[in-house]
Amino acid sequence: MRKETWRPTKGGNVKRIRGLEGIRGLLALAVAYQHTFGIMIGWQSGRSLITNAPFAVDVFFALSAYVLIKSYDEKFSRVNIREATNFYWSRFLRLYPLHFVMLSVVVGIFYGMVHGIPPYFSNNVKRDLISNYLMTQSLVTSESFSINLPSWSISLEFYLGSLVVLLAVFCRPLFYAVFVFFLFIAERHGFRVAGNNDPVFYGVSAGMLRLLLSMGIMVLVMDVVKRLPVRESVAEALCTFGVFTIAVSTICLPPPFHPVPIYLMSVLFAAVAIAFMDKATFVDRVMGNPIFFMLGKLSYSIYLVHFPVSMFLVYLLHIDLSYDAGNWIVHFSILMTLLVSCLTYEFVEKPFILMGRKVRLFGKDRPTG
Fold this sequence. Notes:
GO terms for molecular function: acyltransferase activity. The chain is mainly α.
């Protein structure tokens, strides 16, 4: 079997850290669980074990920053348009195909089962269809909605997140200047963690601010950690505390209990867990066990598949929030999500992942393994 690797760095291949894959998989499952409960049982039912799925998305942003910057950092001394273009092309191949497929499935479900997109999902169908297929629905504060509910973060991840990574790789001082500016905006204007499209500062939405802050904190932690010699026992303790913070923030702290200072501290501790995972052997082994690792491989599919699966079951079984459908339907929907995710990973994600590996990225090195 081919050994799993990340993109090469200056010194060679970067080993995939199994514990981080486990965290990613569990968080994707947490998002799917809360969303499915909200859709099928009711958002205010109080019966979901997960209360803060939005925080899981912020950890996804931090994980993306870690993986991409760890792979490409210190490769270049100046901006190179060709390399930046290839980077965006590789990200497109990684993110867009599954987004396109699952968005089309959701649209097909709506038009095939209820004869159109319901008004509570879109108040301007033509505009929202165009923006969703272009993945631009979350770039600015607007009335546009994500037709596939969780895809708002994919929009930000592709356009804004990729730009943030390039800025951090090519010009770290400018990156930090931008990061400090948005820290000031967050402190001055505040934002709701769960308000993705809420306007915060001119064209900056709460979702955009969350991505910038999460990625910024991750880069800051990475730069500090690589300059500090830390014993494995200390790394284990810090990583354990960070994983505990991720669990508590995702499971126990609903967004109203996450004001900006506490939110920033939660993201900081999550970033510490991510940064120390490669030094924390025990935590890496626990979080990277085969089951969690497999969830990590399926995490992108789980994230985008759970909404169309739950909506299909809602319309197929005529589930109405006016009566209690029972928790069993939520768990059945999650099981179906996992099964469908295995198929989408194998037949949608994997071919384009392999295609992306053939794209020449950042210089002459190519992935191996």
